[in-house]
Amino acid sequence: xxxxxxxxxxxxxxxxxxxxxxxxxxxxxxxxxxxxxxxxxxxxxxxxxxxxxxxxxxxxxxxxxxxxxxxxxxxxxxxxxxxxxxxxxxxxxxxxxxxxxxxxxxxxxxxxxxxxxxxxxxxxxxx
Amino acid sequence: xxxxxxxxxxxxxxxxxxxxxxxxxxxxxxxxxxxxxxxxxxxxxxxxxxxxxxxxxxxxxxxxxxxxxxxxxxxxxxxxxxxxxxxxxxxxxxxxxxxxxxxxxxxxxxxxxxxxxxxxxxxxxxxxxxxxxxxxxxxxxxxxxxxxxxxxxxxxxxxxxxxxxxxxxxxxxxxxxxxxxxxxxxxxxxxxxxxxxxxxxxxxxxxxxxxxxxxxxxxxxxxxxxxxxxxxxxxxxxxxxxxxxxxxxxxxxxxxxxxxxxxxxxxx
Lengths: 127, 268
Hints:
The complex is a heterodimer of chains A (about 130) and B (about 270).
Chain A: E1 5-6, E2 14-18, E3 23-30, H1 35-51, E4 57-66, H2 68-86, E5 91-98, H3 102-112, E6 119-124
Parallel strand pairs in A: 3-4, 4-5, 5-6
Antiparallel strand pairs in A: 1-2, 2-3
Helix pairs in contact in A: 1-2
Chain B: H1 8-18, H2 26-103, H3 113-130, E1 134-141, H4 144-151, H5 153-170, E2 176-181, E3 184-190, H6 194-210, E4 212-215, E5 218-221, E6 224-230, H7 237-253, E7 259-261
Parallel strand pairs in B: 6-7
Antiparallel strand pairs in B: 1-3, 1-6, 2-3, 4-5
Helix pairs in contact in B: 4-5, 5-6
């Protein structure tokens, strides 16, 4: 299955998928002009992966600033994972944040609120 | 929907039609047909009721799922707004921190050269439009290089921080003291002629003279030299800085730890 690799820009995060290991990486700021276009391909990739047998899927996130439409898109993605979790599919989120910016962790907590699947918020010491 | 107990009239008609005694009467045939037509109508009515009920329950289901979806969307919208507000607050605070960082010196916390230049431009504009006077003082710590060489840069930094603290504490409310670079400070004195400025700067000089910075068991004392210039008509703010610099050089040459004023006629 095809993987997605999108190099980050000033307003969009680095996005990379690994079909073979069941991982999706997102890193950076997200305030794209067309967030539907950007997130739709991620959404579709996750849907395809979840439909393809019961292999574990994990999202590795290192997101800083999100604009409103990106927040909405992330919530839709987490809803998708929640639905998969209800069907006993193994899904997880690891949200990394810079220790010096605790507020990113607080925001990740907000996202986590309605999720019953494993959702880790992990401090990372790197700059 | 199914009629379990037929009403008495229907029972009676069924019985009449079934009775062999009535088989050959003239009305039997007609009543039989009427009975058939009646039965057909009843079946049809039941069918309509069944279909109508099905439609109603379908509509009701649809309404419920619509209400659920609306509620879900509303909850999501509230959450998006809440998270978005927090991101915006975070950006606002970051902006303030950035602005502070871009206008202030990291070591001493005093306004940096960028902010000083901005204020100098404003003051020279006020001078041009309203002829409001202002003075500029250039301050240099005497023999600072020796302190750095002798005690190390860390102590040198401590001295800079302490001198900055004293200067900032001694200026008047509307004066602005910033770090111009290295061991040089600039004081901007709005609405102040050279005479008054000279008194303020003399107070600063004395305050720094009284300062001692502890270094382990020993202590370091420093003095400052000051060059003062009042802004003159037709000059740019950098002309005034140059005249203050010239006065500073004169103060250094005549023995340091003193304030010297630029000659006002110089630039005229």
